[in-house]
Write a structure and sequence with these properties.
This protein is of the alpha/beta class. It folds into 3 domains: 84 residues, Winged helix-like DNA-binding domain superfamily/Winged helix DNA-binding domain (Arc Repressor Mutant, subunit A, Orthogonal Bundle), CATH 1.10.10; 78 residues, D-Maltodextrin-Binding Protein, domain 2 (3-Layer(aba) Sandwich); 102 residues, Periplasmic binding protein-like II (D-Maltodextrin-Binding Protein, domain 2). Helices cover 39% and strands 22% of the residues. Strands 4-3-5-13-6 form a 5-stranded mixed beta sheet, sandwiched between helices. Helix 1 crosses helix 2, helix 1 crosses helix 4 and helix 5 packs across helix 9. The longest helix has 28 residues. InterPro entries: LysR_HTH_N (IPR000847), LysR_subst-bd (IPR005119), WH-like_DNA-bd_sf (IPR036388), WH_DNA-bd_sf (IPR036390). Transcriptional regulator of the ttuABCDE tartrate utilization operon. Belongs to the LysR transcriptional regulatory family. This is HTH-type transcriptional regulator TtuA.
């Protein structure tokens, strides 16, 4: 006998119900064939999966371990079938798009609206992930395209294109005298406390921001670190400091925060958003989405 998916599905149903009658009903089959299927599976494995009495059914220790692995196997198979169907037929047009929060400021909402108008039947699955998790998904083909903050570590087989460049402005508490300014010079911030994203989240951009401050004559005093833009703005609203944010984040409109233009920032210091994908074997549905993004009018 060879263990097949039917045996695994039968086993998982009984293990989750701990009752052969309920498991048989769930599987839309009679109880005797289900009992025989479990017995054949145990015989093939060489150890019992269940402890059976007249009143109850329990998993053995070996059965508990086997349940975890059986679930994993079935999930992988179901995902494999989904991905194969998607690859086999453009009629099942579906693309998986991952993104960091910065994509939500302008580019991604505009791209989704435009693409829905062009291809109303295409199903777009969205998933917010950090950059490293997006790259892993692109490598294992569970993700079609990601929106990330460059630069990226060298990853073979992927193509990257910058789709948006945003100037920086300054988020300040509305209680601050700076909130009423038409613009603020970078050198004027030497006495301010800052809320900043951690260095590990974006080493290159973090380093360039600190370098710009040094060139303006001071080292920024980072009072609090936060990863998500909404968290950063909420901490600014709580009067914990000021923050460098991309102009696009103005759309978030957090109470207690004023956005003020910055003067004196290096011209090439921008908050960039890039699109990354695997060009080899790209399906028509993905190519069409890439074209939608690159044809968006400048923000």
């Amino acid at each position: 006998m060879t263990i097949d998916l039917h045996h695994l599905r039968h086993f998982v149903a009984v293990a989750e119900e701990l009752h052969f009658g309920r498991a048989a009903a769930r599987l839309h089959m009679a109880q005797p064939p289900l009992s025989q299927s479990i017995k054949r599976l145990e015989a093939e494995l060489g150890f019992p999966l269940f402890l059976r009495t007249q009143r109850r059914v329990e998993l053995t220790p070996a059965g508990q371990v086997f349940l975890t692995e059986a679930r994993r196997t079935l999930q992988q198979m179901d995902e494999g079938v989904r991905m194969a169907r998607r690859a086999a037929s453009e009629d099942l047009a579906e693309i998986t798009v991952t993104f960091t929060s910065a994509a939500l400021y302008r580019v991604l909402p505009a791209a989704l609206r435009a693409h829905r108008q062009r291809f109303p039947t295409v199903d777009i699955r969205l998933d917010e992930r950090p950059t490293d998790a997006q790259l892993a998904g692109l490598q294992d083909d569970s993700v079609d395209v990601g929106f990330v903050t460059p630069p990226l570590k060298a990853v073979s087989g992927l193509q990257i294109e910058v789709v948006d460049r945003d100037r920086f402005c300054l988020a300040v508490p509305v209680s601050s005298p700076l909130a009423n300014r038409n613009s603020i010079g970078l050198a004027e911030l030497s006495e301010e406390s800052f809320v900043l994203f951690p260095h590990v989240q974006g080493p290159s951009l973090h380093g360039r921001l600190v370098s710009a401050c040094r060139q303006a004559g001071f080292v920024p005093r980072v009072r609090q670190e936060a990863r998500q833009m909404h968290t950063i703005l909420s901490l600014v609203a709580a009067d914990l400091g000021v923050a460098f944010i991309p102009e696009g984040a103005r759309s978030m409109q957090v109470n207690g925060v004023a956005m003020v233009p910055l003067a004196g920032m290096p011209d090439d210091l921008t908050w960039d958003l890039a699109m990354v994908w695997k060009p080899r074997g790209a399906r028509r549905a993905l190519v069409a989405f890439l074209q939608t993004v690159t044809s968006l009018p400048p923000s």
